[in-house]
Amino acid sequence: MGQALHDLWYGFGVALVPNHLMWSVFGVLLGNLIGVLPGMGALTAISMLLPLTYVIAPIPAILMLAGIFYGSMYGGAIGAILLNLPSHPPHAVTCIDGYPMTQQGRGGAALGVTMMASFFAASVGILIMIFLSPLLEVVAFKFGPTEISAIMLLGLLAGATMSRGSPLKGVAMTIFGLFIGAVGTDVISGTQRYNFGINELSDGVDLAALSLGLFGVADFLVTINRKVIKASDAKVRMRDMRPTRAEMKQAFLPMLRGTAVGCLFGAMPGTGPTITTFIAYALERKIAKDPSRFGKGAIEGVAAPEAAAHSKTQVDFIPTMSLGIPGDAVMALLLGALIIKGIQPGPQMISEHPDIFWGLIASFWIGNVLLIILNVPMIGVWVKLLQVPYRLLYPSALFFICIGVYSTHNSLFDVIEVAAFGVVGAIFLALDFPMAPIVLGYVLGPLLEENFRRAMLLARGNLAVYLTRPIAAWIIGACTLLILAQLYSYARRTRTPAPLPAEELLAE
Amino acid sequence: MKPLRQYNKDRVSGVVLLVLGIAIVAQGLEYRMGALTRMGAGFIPVVLGTLLALVGVAIWVTAEPGDFGTAKSMPTEWRGWLCVLGGVLAFVVFGIYGGLVPATFLSVFIAALGDRGSSVRVAALLAAGITVAGVLIFVYGLSMTFPLFTWG
């Protein structure tokens, strides 16, 4: 306890170094800006700015990326509430009640509540992270290659099956991502794999190129001339953002419950943020005295999911940093950025790079305070940005994608990769495949392969080692349980075609 | 051939994955396989390809008839597709034969023409604006190495 506070104090020292603080502010501001723009979510924001982090030192780089991440989450909520436009999937739930509030002229209050709920939830998440991470670190030291590969498998399975849509398709995309991660030089034997004689591929597929292809170009290909994105005529001023006393009272308990849901799901590797917000919303509707108010501008329906999203985001950093297993695609991108910087997240990270770990935690708090300071006076600017038409937006974004990817290795070949993954991504999107598991698989692929091969080398090729080592056996048991649960729900669905609660919500 | 949207999306998905999986396995067999004790470079990719093909079969088998998914609501949009992809490829081609200024201008210009609400004038203005901003930010601001004008 005392140690954690001491470490936290040290973290503030790292995060408040002017150079670090500057990048953190820059990330928050840029993330918020991109998040507000229609059609640009957290994933697009982080991928677009990923190349920029290659040129700066590891600590400011990760502080900036984290800033971009939660900045874009705030920004996305603005678009969801004022425009009914969820640019980041977790905000889809916020739209259900946030937009009706805007129509009733309470959009400002919805934004105000979102901001409070997010700040509160993030603070709780950060506290949990401070006290839980060192504990997890102790456990993590007992992990050998067998346990690490087993828990990676669990994370991948959970990521594939516990998102929205068909679990089989999630699994397919995870495997596809693992394969993409295998392209390039095999680290153990040095063999060139799947590079088809192209020299540029011997270092593997570029992370920025892959994510910008999947979350940028593919999205443009699917969206162009299809979605009519109306400009918002909502006018929100600073003083509109203060919720009334009654609204505050209504939002308070849902905020607490949402935070709890988020914390619970954040600790589980692989559960995406979208499913978390859906569960928080469903919970509120279930326990509400008058469920019919939901969907018509109930403030609880805004406060709970937003709180859940933000506490989950913070708690998600625990498995990402201490085990090296990202909870979702955004975490996978952050993890990828750390690996590029030569920092291997995992049990050793907290002791080897305490400056990064504790600096990051402290910067979360600073960043969240910054967001409140930024968002309240700048709300007018953000509302103006919502009116930028899509036809001007996507060509500009396309240029930033091209030059960003080029700048990573000063190579135009990477830009061709972006186009290729854009086409692949668009085809998969049209066939209703989820995109996020690809990135998860891609980042974890090489790590999983290395650990699995090492585990097999140590066990002389005996797969039973996964069942004889106790920790690994527990994890494999959890994997089996996940698969059985999916089979059960499939069997039940085919017998009685009752829609799942999440699907029912989506249909509204 | 019928347009894609008239096929059952899960059947199409299954076939796509099956073909992809088989292709990965076929190429993976070219590399050393090894055994579980000492896995060669080809081992993991072959396993992944096999799994992908199996998942493809599973998706094909469990496909619900008449389920066309989002593809149904996605009519072909050649103008948008060609312009977005053309924009990216223009950046590559004119980046090699032309330099940053023509590459930026043409890629934004071509991409902007993809939207049906856009006009040549709007696209040109946007492209000019982005070119100026891009040069200022990336060449003068971040001192990136990309010649403004070049030939090959």
Give a written overview of the molecule.
The complex is a heterodimer of chains A (508) and B (152). Chain A has 21 helices and two strands. Chain A is mainly α and 508 residues long. Chain A has one domain. In chain A, strands 1-2 form a two-stranded antiparallel sheet. In chain A, helix 3 runs antiparallel to helix 9, helix 3 packs parallel to helix 16 (390-409) and helix 4 crosses helix 5 (92-103). The model of chain A is unreliable at 497-508 (pLDDT under 50). By secondary structure, chain B is mainly alpha-helical. Chain B folds into two domains: 4-73; 78-141, no CATH class. Helix content of chain B is 61%, strand content 0%. Chain B contains five helices and no strands. Chain B has helices at residues 9-28, 43-61, 78-96, 100-112, 120-141. In chain B, helix 3 runs antiparallel to helix 4. Chain B is flat, with a radius of gyration of 23 Å. The two termini of chain B are 41 Å apart. In chain B, 39% of the residues are buried.
The chain-level mean pLDDT of chain A equals: 81
Question: How would you sum up the major sheet of chain B?
Answer: none
Helix content of chain A: over 70%
- Work out the count of structural domains of chain B: 2
**Pair with the most extensive interface?**
A-B, 64 and 73 residues
Structure described in brief:
By secondary structure, chain A is mostly helical. Chain A has helices spanning 2-15, 18-36, 42-53, 58-83, 92-103, 107-140, 145-161, 167-182, 207-223, 245-266, 273-287, 300-323, 329-340, 347-352, 354-385, 390-409, 413-430, 436-458, 465-468, 470-495, 501-507, and strands at residues 184-185, 192-193. Chain A has one domain (2-138, 145-228, 235-507).
Characteristics:
heterodimer; A: two-stranded antiparallel sheet; B: mainly alpha
List the helices and strands and how they pair.
The complex is a heterodimer of chains A (508) and B (152).
Chain A: H1 2-15, H2 18-36, H3 42-53, H4 58-83, H5 92-103, H6 107-140, H7 145-161, H8 167-182, E1 184-185, E2 192-193, H9 207-223, H10 245-266, H11 273-287, H12 300-323, H13 329-340, H14 347-352, H15 354-385, H16 390-409, H17 413-430, H18 436-458, H19 465-468, H20 470-495, H21 501-507
Antiparallel strand pairs in A: 1-2
Helix pairs in contact in A: 1-15, 2-3, 2-4, 2-15, 3-4, 3-9, 3-13, 3-16, 4-5, 4-6, 4-13, 4-15, 5-6, 5-12, 6-10, 6-12, 6-15, 7-8, 7-18, 7-20, 8-18, 9-16, 9-17, 10-11, 10-12, 11-12, 13-18, 16-17
Chain B: H1 9-28, H2 43-61, H3 78-96, H4 100-112, H5 120-141
